[in-house]
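My current task is to audit a protein record that another person submitted. I have pasted the whole thing underneath without changing anything:
***
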Amino acid sequence: MGSPEISTNTAVEKPKRIKRGLWPALALVFLAPLVAEFLLGNLPIKLLPALVVLAPMYGGGALLIREVVRRTGRGWPSILLLGMAYAILEEGFTTQSLFNPNYLKLNLGLLAPAFIPSLGIGAWWTLWMLMVHGIWSISTPIALIEACVPDRAKTPWLGRVGLSVVAVVFLLGATATTLMGYKQDHFMASNAQFVGAAIVIVLMIGLAFKVPTKSRDTAPGIPPSAVLLGVISIAFASGAMLVPMRWGWGAVAALLALVLGMLVVVAAWARKGAMGLAHQLALGAGAALAYGWHAFLQHPAVGGLDASVRVGNAIFLAGAIGLVGFAAKQIARANRGSTAG
């Protein structure tokens, strides 16, 4: 008669298995470079095979940041800060575009707007790179893929072995990118610039693990709409894309104003208890779609401008819209399931 009791206790004491996410992890690895270079319009669709080269650094970096943040129970402020640390690593060490006055000999004049002679950097380009990588290259792909798997959105997707593999792949990707860049342009920043960049990276990483993990108490009332937040997000992101570099310090001021304005909006939404997965998707969708439509206005950084470029822009934008739609359906299904339960 005692066996049922023993069986019940044994079942209760079984440890819960953590639901891993190999497929979401792989999706993030490839989505990050797709957003960062192809949806942006920086690379044409004919160079899609370059994903094999771009994924280890872009995708490896995004996945590594996502896993570390979720493993430590931290949130989006940490992801953004680590994304900006990634920006300094890529643009300060790997490509050195923060310091190179003629990056890859493209004659783009990236450092000329709001140039700071004592540091050898352009304030506009540095701020823009912090935004581009912190928001688009890292945070946007994470937001979109997490929204596709609501039941695993806040849990680690990899075990220790998988995380170690990703770290090695990321380092190999960063090394390969650095060597390829140096082969094209033998520019080398000064020791002081490298040291300064390293200090900034360390400070950003330290701050990422110091920001509070718990939000303040939310105010009573009906949470604001995720759709409205998405509209505001695409408006902010589009405005940032349209700020002309020729404004110099005016461009720096405009970008800072947009960033601060968006932070105020997000803080207000969070204060009203409206920063769930649907709102996360809204923010990521707004950023991605701004990249997608703006791609039609720019010339690719590599190669000429022909019909295939615009066809590729349309394909990538359609893909982004499809991914957002799929994620929205997954969230709606998860919400119905939790309500029924």
In short: The longest strand covers residues 115-116. The two ends are 33 Å apart (CA to CA).
